[in-house]
Amino acid sequence: MTTLILTVAGADRPGLVAAVADVVEAHGGNWENSRLAELAGTFAGVIEVSVSADRAAELESALSALDGLLTVAVHTGSDAAANPADREIDIRVLGNDRPGIVREVSGVLNAHALSIEELTSETKDAAMAGGRLFEASVTARVPASVDLHALRADLERLATEIQVDITVA
After folding, report:
1. What whole-number distance in Å separates Cα of residue 55 and Cα of residue 62?
2. pLDDT 10s per residue in the chain (169 long)?
3. Cβ proximity of 7 and 70 under 8 Å
4. What are phi and psi of 69, to 5 degrees?
5. Which of 42, 68, 80, 120 is 20 to 30 A distant from 15 in Cα terms?
């Protein structure tokens, strides 16, 4: 089996997931994992599909027929497995919204060689104080060689600097 990673985006409307699922199934594919969302009127997502190697090109070609409904890019997945010595940590960020928070936090993670496995974020109205709140949740893979105390210290320094709460679990 071959793993294909589909990235999809298009104007949000009913039936988009069904359209992709129909094409995947019609060409012998199996929808395995996905992250899909509507953001600012645009439907976007990433889908992991497995398909027999001899049908992968056929599936990719059929997905291109969705153009106009959705833009679909197809990438071949990697067989790279995570190092069993690596750990995962969860990081939560909460504070007043401002440009640069994701850049700052991801910069610290990158400086410590962490790989972001999943990142979700949102902004919402701050009920009592007015303005907007930024909230993010990050799951990151930490190589065994990383000094967790130094990572926590750098995240604490950053939290103070940009005036957000950062918790690490």
Report:
1. 11
2. 999 999 999 999 999 999 999 999 999 999 999 999 999 999 999 999 999 999 999 999 999 999 999 999 999 988 766 788 889 999 999 999 999 999 999 999 999 999 999 999 999 998 777 789 999 999 999 999 999 999 999 999 999 999 999 999 9
3. no
4. -95, -50
5. 120
Distant-in-sequence, close-in-space partners of 24: CB < 8 Å, separation ≥ 6: 30, 31, 47, 49, 51, 59
Burial class (CB in 10 A: 0-12, 13-18, 19+), 80: exposed
Of 103, 104, 95, residue with least CA distance to 123: 95
Cβ(158)–Cβ(138) below 8 Å:
no
Name 43's bridge partners.
10, 38
* Global confidence as pTM: 0.83
Amino acid at 144: A
Q: Which residue has the tokens 């902004």?
A: 123
51: which 2 tokens?
Answer: 């398909």
* The pLDDT of residue 139: 97
Rounded to whole angstroms, how far apart are CA atoms 29 and 82?
25
Structure token pair of residue 53: 């190697």
